[in-house]
Amino acid sequence: MAEVLRVPVLLFDGDCAMCTDWVAWAERHPGAVRSSGEWEAVACQFVDLPALDACAGGRGLVTAERVQHGPLWLTPSGKVYGGLEAAARVLMRSGGAWPYAGGLLALPPVRLLARILCLPATRRWHPTRTGGAP
Fold first, then answer.
1. What is the DSSP string of 66-131?
2. Are 5 and 76 in contact (CB under 8 A)?
3. In principle, which of 76, 102, 118, 127 could form an S-S bond with 132, CB 3.0–4.6 Å?
4. Does pTM surpass 0.90?
């Protein structure tokens, strides 16, 4: 990884089937690159996390532990968005109606509702991380 990011990076947990499937969908979705520029998806196991954290200002925001709780979206300007905010950023760069869905998901009340609605799925895919049954 370069010291400065050229394009936004979606950092995800490559061990989670749900995360991996979602990223695969986002990468192949029609218009994902056309609509508003490139981005790169990388599993956290295959990247230098301290270097990415340095790109984000060296504040300890980019860690393997944090990625285990949801994806991170890192911008070239050093901003870091996590979890559903990261998902919203990916949707905003997709084609069709997905940018509108991403814009809605970026709103705090909608994000809170989505977090509540996604909790059962999160417990199913990450039982040890969320306190659900293994």
1. HHTTS-EEE-TTS-EEETHHHHHHHHHTSSTTHHHHHHHHTSHHHHHHHHHHHHHHHHHH-HHHHT
2. yes
3. 127
4. no
What's the maximum distance between 2 C-alpha atoms anywhere in the chain?
41
> What 3-state class would DSSP assign to 10?
strand
Whether the Cβ atoms of residue 38 and residue 26 lie closer than 8 Å to each other: no
Could you state, in order of their start, the residue ranges of all structural domains in the chain? 9-127
Instruction: Report phi then psi at 51, rounded to 5.
Output: -65, -40
Nearest-10 crossing angle of helices 98-105, 108-125: 100
Q: Are 40 and 10 in contact (CB under 8 A)?
A: yes
A 10 A CB-CB count for 131 gives: 8
